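Why do we care about 3D structure at all? Because function follows from shape, and shape follows, mostly, from sequence. That is the central idea of this module. The next example makes it concrete: a single protein chain, its amino acid sequence, and then its structure expressed as tokens.
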Amino acid sequence: MKNAIEVNNLRKEFKAYSSRSGLKGAFRDLFTRNYKVVPAVNDISFSVKQGEMVGYIGENGAGKSTTIKMLTGILTPTSGQITVNGMNPHKERERFVQTIGVVFGQRSQLWWDIAVQESFRLLKKVYKVTDEQYDDHMQHVIKTLDIEPLLDKPVRKLSLGQRMRCELAAALIHNPPLLFLDEPTIGLDVLVKLKIREFLKEINEKYNTTILLTTHDLSDIEALCDRVIMLDAGKVIYDGALNDLKENLADGKELHFQFLEKVDLPAVKKVTGGLPVKWDYDEKEQVFIANLDNDDLLISQVIATVVAAFKIKDIKINETSTEEIIRNIYEKGAVEVG
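And the structure:
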């Protein structure tokens, strides 16, 4: 199976300028600027096989978007090699863009003031897609994403969820073998997210479309990707199966407590003070979460201590979430699995 993406020792550096203080400093800045070179992507290497769905994750500033911009040919690398769909994204620009689809959650490729289907027609011309190819492929895309009622509306009249479904359809007009998705479900409600996930699974199965997905929503990754590449400070700190990550690092449990009375975090910390437990509070769900080792005796002790101290509305015992595992990895640095 051939690789859709090959990256070797990829590096991107930016100049970070600093201002001198005072009037004299400002005057000197007019003629010479102080700067330091900051690597946003720091000699990373990885490959993605044709047909793989890979989650590319990292905290803000880890280098995810910079990588995507280099892979799509928007930015030129400082050093290293990139081959995407057998081409250099910068040197074979025109031929290359015919083979990729891109959805940036924060940017639109649709024209703001014209009807969605007019945008689709313009993109069809740009990508030199025949009427037959368009009808054959896009009928399915439009039906599955449920955007038929939106085709006559101008983009500015669409809600965020409606626009993102149209953006996804627009990226697929030329049925590219490779799709880059940068935060495609940001700000969307649960039903729209589910629709988009189902659709992505379907095109991956039907056309063997390769998908590289960057997102802060780890439930997207869990639903779609078997493999994750994790970036921190411009370096790859994990590249492998999501399941391995969970099996090897999910050695903890989460106890979720809801109380009948008003309780605060210092109070629960105080009553479990002698036990090895870390407390969090989920404000949205109003749930107190105790993170602890998967030890039956310890779990029983924590439950007994908390039940003795407070009136309980509900208790749940969960495996440690992917989110918690990944937060722990970022705190500890690179991860050894296996």
